Protein 1
Amino acid sequence: MKMRTFLILSLAAVGLLAGCSQAPNDDSSLSVSGVSDDAASAGEPIARELIDEGRVSAISRLLDQGADIDAPNDQGATPLMVAIAMRKPQVVDLLLERGADVNRASKGGETPLVSAVITNQVELGQRLVAHGADLSPQSLTGALALGTAAHLGHEHWVRFLVENGLSPNATDQRGIMALQRAAARPSPAMVALLLDLGAEPDRPNAQNRAPLIDAAGAGCLDCVRALLAAGADIDRQTTVYRHTPLLEATVKRRPEVVAHLIEQGADRTLTDDEGLTALDHARRMNADVLVGLLE
């Protein structure tokens, strides 16, 4: 799933893209489901309307009655995720004080920390960490938060996550690290920041795809320069399609990157899984500028 789609689904999961119905005015008549009842049923989710309206006292009473503080909605988002997404700090504080699980993940793998990154609420970072948010070096959920921050260009979040224990090389559930997200975005400033924080420039994923090939395909010359200067392998080939950075830049029609890679010594004779060189691809695409560079 591409990151743009992931972000949309993430926002939907925590309730940002769904309509809100109005909550009843009398807090005392609200049950867990938002319907008038004498007592809350244990295990039912806290009504989204209560969170949307910021009704702290009503939510507190429901928790006293036995409402499950971590009961998820249909998308697997917990009340804490929903409160963060809706920017309801008082509800967030209540849920944290009452012991909400800060590491519970939705069906899509999003945690409260990821919700805070998506909505760019930096002030929540320390509070979530103080309540146990997992930022161990190779935390999967931490890596998802870091990759999301890198993709969105939230430099303060990237610094915060790494400074609080997360490795800049941590990989998410798909085996992707933040530097790859930044290179594919592309964001030269984020690539530079992650390299400065210790990200490995040539660390590949399971398909042997390293950040340089993403930068080359995206046409980010500054990213390519930074990664090569940091030691990235200019001729690394992926296991899928057998692309090198030069082949990737060629098929994506990135002449400036092609010229720079050639200048830096990229091997023009390497072939992909079809047995084609970069020059073969340029000729097949009738890309005269690229042909001139590669001949």
Note: The longest helix spans residues 140-152.
Protein 2
Amino acid sequence: MSDNVIEIIGNDLPFLKNVSGIRNGLDLRYTAVGQGQSFIPVLENELFQVNEFSFANYSLMKDRDIAPMTAIPVFLNRAFRHGSLYVHKDSDLTHPSQLKGKTIGAREYTQTAGVWWRGLMIDEYDLHWSDLNWVSETKQRFLPPKEAGVEALDEDLEQMTIDGKIDAFLAPRTRDGKKPLGEQMLRGLFPDTEKKERNYFARTGIYPLNHAVVIHDETLTKYPDCPKPLFDAYCASKKQFYASGGDLNPWGDDDNGHDFIQFGMTDKNREIVTTLLRYLHEQKFISRIPDIDGLFVEGADAWVDG
């Protein structure tokens, strides 16, 4: 293997198909994997070079000084979270105002999607996470904050929701959602999820980010100039995707050239990161809100996605 190879692992997304290539003398090699697979080496303290990773978990690890990595401002896996809470199709629950005192299951309590949902509930609907009863699966990436009072269950939480044993299931997606529409037993809490998303985006301009790209400290030591070529590779791949007719509009609209997943430390991306960090602090995941620039490699604040 050439000495200048950098292995990159991330989700199998169409706009990342052209990340691989030679840049600044570095042989960048992108390997596409399934959802969450790029997290495993990071969470299990295995050696990696460059991986896509949960931004919430990265921030938590930085706060605890257990993160042998630094991020670059390539923000991936964006999604609105209004539709991330699932209830039984026959449930009378249709609004967050009905959720106080209810029991919600979350497979992984520290997942970024859940952090966004709980923050959204406070900001938009005056529903605090402490007003809910939380249950999780036994295996967790990190212990949930004690203030959340999360009960770990050796149960399938999605099935518990279908069976009526708990009130709702918080997740980015469900197994149930892969079934034909007529066979599905779960539905989103809101009857008009897309309308809620559009209204939120029109008012705030926030399209929540979930992942970032992180570089292991050993890779940064060996290739101190690698961050910018990596950033440029992601930007160029996305640009090729758009040039070939690709569309990343969350609702499938004709977006008139708007880039919904712009990379770099733009003013809007700073606002989005700041919001997520505030949520992490409010939800007791991190001890303080860090300096944003300290979470990214030096000089990243000047990079432009173009």
Note: The chain has a mean pLDDT of 96.
